Amino acid sequence: MSQELDPRTRMLLEAPIVATLLRLAAPNVLVMVAQASVGLIETYFVGKLGTNALAGMALVFPIVMLMQMTSAGAMGGGIASSIARALGARRRGDADALVWHAAVIAIGFGLCFSLALLAGGRWLYAIMGGTGAALDAALTYSNWVFAGAVLVWLFNSLSAIIRGTGNMAVPANVTVVGVVFLIPASPLLIFGWGPLPGMGIAGGAMALLLYYLLGSIALIVYLRSPRSLLRPTLSALKLRWPLFRDILRIGLVGAVSTVATNLSIGIATALTGHFGSGALAGYGTASRLEYLLVPLVFGLGAPLVAMVGTCMGAGQRERALRATWAGAALAFALTETIGLAAALFPRPWLLLFGNDPVMLETGAHYLRVVGPLYGFFGVGLVLYFASQGAGRLLWPVLGNIARLVVAGVGGWLALRWGGGLAGVFAAQGVALVVYGIVIASAIAGGAWFGRVGWPRTTSGLLRRVAQA
């Protein structure tokens, strides 16, 4: 019976777990590092325009990352999970049809983001602390980026479709080639060259949109080629609500978690904005490292979605759990290493984007306080992806909401009681610990398969993880 499966699907069901995860994650981590480099390249060149431009990008960046994480992580995870479970259950016709349903969802959500930010951007960035030249820079960048939101959604959804089959290499290759294109294109459009006039901060946004346009075209060409496992032919174009529901029931719940993550950082951005543009630029630049962890963990989480989803579709629950805890251990090691390095040596990262004294002081303070706790963020995030594969997202969402409450209320109380930025950043760190522990405890207690039986002690939690 296993011979009826595609070799890639059989690998997800039968091959050694850790070796398979690492093999699949390697190109995926590469693609996520490359994709994260897109934002870093922009920030580097925009930083040459001055502190106000950097502060403007700091205002917009949480919203851009909200769109990125919703399209690639939340809804993208729903797409990849649906396709993986369909292939694991040998429903090839549904897997092909899901390609069209994913494209419709991407276009719809992309248009919603465009309308919301073009109409309400000024109000939102002003609430987040933007004033004067920083607010003007934020609006310029935001209007350009969100005018092309459909391109971002389409690219990330097409990548999720392909990853749902267990193929991590094609999205990786497309993204790496795109970054090679972006390295000259971004400064060219920002500063100009010869007869080509510089567009300033708008040029960074234009380069970004060109990257997503060309990448989407490349992914469509692959899906129409004989090398693609899926066959999204016109005969599969008939739209059916059950297939929309299969994606949306995971994607929409995941979007709540994504909103909570970005709202936590957005609130911290707004609280930091009370201390001026220099502090705002410092926090925005430092917190980009946390955002860099998202694509890195996603590089591991995407194959985990495919493996867990395929195993759950095939009824292999025990293997799905073993893969989950292997992924959690790898994610903790990766993110904790980065966090500790950032806490010990914050200035090399910050000096990439500017040398304003207030920016450097604020950013270093944040990294020293929060960096050592990044491992908990990595665990919570990778378990969120595993839960997408399992189609069980309640506890990841509750964990993210708990993080939001701790970060938001704690940060507000810190300012109210005179704790300053140190209190705001401490609340962010505690929130990461709460986030990771809530999700890990729930899964270890059996949340995927019934009522949660909470481990009474830390050793109890570790024992259940080891048994899984």
UniProtKB/TrEMBL annotation:
Cellular component, GO annotation: plasma membrane
Organism classification: Bacteria, Pseudomonadati, Pseudomonadota, Betaproteobacteria, Burkholderiales
Pfam families, sorted: MatE
MF GO annotations: antiporter activity; xenobiotic transmembrane transporter activity
Species this protein is from: Variovorax paradoxus
Protein name (database record): Multidrug export protein MepA
Entry-linked NCBIfam families: matE
Keyword Signal listed: no
UniProt keyword terms in alphabetical order: Cell membrane, Membrane, Transmembrane, Transmembrane helix, Transport
Subcellular localization: Cell inner membrane
Topological type in the membrane: Multi-pass membrane protein
